[in-house]
Specification:
By secondary structure, the chain is α/β, with parallel strands linked by helices. About 45% of the residues lie in helices and about 20% in strands. It has one domain (about 1-145): HUPs (Rossmann fold). It is globular.
Length: about 150
């Protein structure tokens, strides 16, 4: 089984990584693809000189920072993984990455903002749940308590 883990550098995204690691500890045989999605390159073109190499380095650097903490968790656990930095609208890009990598499932963190929105899935999560052709697990952010596992 191959699982895409969507990460954006946030605490909820790290909860998704921790959940995936718990699945491995519970005996699931799986490999992982860490994926992040950056703003389309044309936004950077407005503030940077029109140099494709510079633009690629900028989006790669931003994406690398978004992946860094998730990669650290997987590396500390000795878990191999693939990584991808995509560009575009987050939900369709994540679905595309999952499809291209042959993923069997997607795990992502929930993002609630504000009192009303905390009860609802974020728009990216909701779109992925509705349009992905594979099962999607949304991991609720539990703060510091979510970092602890029973062992």
């Amino acid at each position: 089984m191959k699982i895409l883990i969507a990460v954006d550098g946030s605490a909820p995204a790290l909860d998704a990584v921790r959940h995936a690691l718990q699945l491995l500890q519970s005996g699931l045989q799986a490999s992982f693809v860490l994926a992040t999605v950056q703003e389309p390159v044309y936004l950077y073109e407005r503030v940077l000189p029109p140099d494709a190499e510079v633009l690629e380095r900028v989006t790669g650097a931003v994406g690398g920072r978004a992946l860094a903490d998730a990669e650290a968790l997987l590396n500390a656990s000795g878990v191999p993984y693939e990584r991808e930095i995509a560009s575009g609208e987050p939900a369709p890009a994540l679905i595309d990455v999952a499809h291209r990598h042959g993923c069997d499932a997607i795990i992502m963190g929930a993002r609630g903002r504000g009192a009303l929105r905390s009860a609802l899935l974020g728009s990216v999560s909701q779109h992925v749940v509705q349009h992905a052709s594979v099962p999607v697990t949304i991991v609720k952010h539990g703060g510091a308590e979510s970092a602890h596992t029973d062992g």
